[in-house]
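step: validate -> pass
step: tokenize input -> pass
step: predict -> running
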Amino acid sequence: MKVWIARDKNGDLSMYNAKPKRMDKFFMPGTIAGKKVSWWILPKDRFPKITWENSPVKYEVDMTFDEVKTKKGGVNEVK
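step: predict -> pass
step: emit ->
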């Protein structure tokens, strides 16, 4: 999946599924015709090379998912 990662002027870091639009001090989610637009807030200390000045940066993300089972008492166990 291709994503865009951008850092706002205040240092906040977000990941978007469409190229975000640069505003005065932050980025707004972009648009994809006919599809939902999503974005995720990331920890500020991640991707230190991404700055306000060079944002947004396009990345390829490879994700895997593992189902998590909850045992009695709330302890999680990866299947």
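step: describe -> The longest strand covers residues 2-7.
step: cleanup -> pass
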